Amino acid sequence: MSEDVDGPDPARVETVELVLELSHAMTVNLLVAARDHGLSPPQARAVLGMTAPAPMRDLAEHLACDKSHVTGLVDGLESLGLVARQPDPRDRRIRQLVLTDAGRTLRDTLRVRLYAQAPAIGNLTGAEEEQLRQLLRRALHPTC
Amino acid sequence: MSEDVDGPDPARVETVELVLELSHAMTVNLLVAARDHGLSPPQARAVLGMTAPAPMRDLAEHLACDKSHVTGLVDGLESLGLVARQPDPRDRRIRQLVLTDAGRTLRDTLRVRLYAQAPAIGNLTGAEEEQLRQLLRRALHPTC
DNA sequence: TATTGTTATACTCTATAACTATA
DNA sequence: TATAGTTATAGAGTATAACAATA
């Protein structure tokens, strides 16, 4: 006789859905820009993650993927003229990855797109965004 | 002579990163539960999206994928005993998809995991979660 | 002629394992 | 012996196109 009602709290459902919706919009916004520049989603994440010169192993760790996958990824970025493999004089097994000038320019473009031009956030006032940031900080990192 | 500083506002960067971090944690939390029940990520999204009986075409739309992809997806769910294809007496081209009892149970389990057991949100007070919800609502749907 | 769903095929993303060249 | 990177291969996930049945 018991009805099968009483699912999750509707307010909580809305909270979760809003977080997922915002995250999805941010991701799509970034990936559209990436595609317009000829980058696949994993290539875009790679370029965004490259700051200082680093061994390919580090990029695999950043992307949370196997090192074997990085080879082809970097092949593509290299043929686009965005990345270069440089020898490491201290350890000849290592290839130091560096962004070219074009790569740095594109990385900065993608950063602007991901952050400065993030969707929806611009609809908040500075104070509201600060509030949002503090709530998220408290939720995710309660010890801080 | 100009330094290449002045990237995006660090506060904005933190806001965006926190949103992505929370969304990622929610997604991982859901997908771990799904995998524990033998579901791949797309299968989990399918089960979560099934409420009323609906043609396969609707599921393709919900998943934002081609209809040809839904065939194999539903084959898997059917062989797991979670979903059944039922004829539509009004239009014999259509297969109405319905969750079995086991499918409904699993869907409810996944809903609890995604919503009630969402990570991080539980660290907020009810009032804080309400604040968060309102900020996200205002950012994403400013007209409401 | 248009639509639902299936099949056949291919492409992208990613992993595992075997290999090389160093260390 | 262990590590950095590559190659070969295989498995998901997904798309396009051609098709069958029905409208």
Write the topology of this structure.
The structure is a homodimer of 144-residue chains.
Chain A: H1 10-36, H2 41-49, E1 54-55, H3 56-63, H4 67-79, E2 83-87, E3 95-99, H5 101-116, H6 126-140
Antiparallel strand pairs in A: 1-3, 2-3
Helix pairs in contact in A: 2-4, 3-4
Chain A binds a DNA duplex (23 and 23 nucleotides) through residues 40-42, 55-57, 65-73, 91-95.
Mind explaining what this structure looks like?
- 2 copies of one chain form a homodimer.
- Chain A is mainly alpha-helical.
- Chain A has helices at 10-36, 41-49, 56-63, 67-79, 101-116, 126-140, and strands at residues 54-55, 83-87, 95-99.
- The radius of gyration of chain A is 20 Å and the shape is elongated.
- The interface between A and B is large, with 44 and 44 residues.
- The structure holds a DNA duplex (23 and 23 nucleotides).
Determine the structural class of chain A based on helices, strands and strand pairing.
mainly alpha
The coarse overall form of chain A would be: elongated
Largest interface, with counts of residues having CB < 8 Å to the other chain, equals: A-B, 44 and 44 residues
Q: What's the helix-strand series of chain A?
A: HHEHHEEHH
- Report the biggest beta sheet of chain A as strand number plus sense, adding barrel if it closes: 3 strands, antiparallel
> How many individual helices of chain A?
6
Q: How many β strands of chain A by DSSP?
A: 3
Which strand order spans the largest sheet of chain A, edge to edge or round the barrel? 1-3-2
What is the terminal separation of chain A in angstroms? Answer: 48 Å
Rg of chain A, alpha carbons: 20 Å
Oligomer: homodimer
Question: Roughly what is the average pLDDT of chain A, rounded to an integer?
Answer: 95
The low-confidence runs of chain A, each spanning 5 or more residues with pLDDT under 50, are none
Please estimate the helix content of chain A: 55-70%
Strand content of chain A: 5-15%
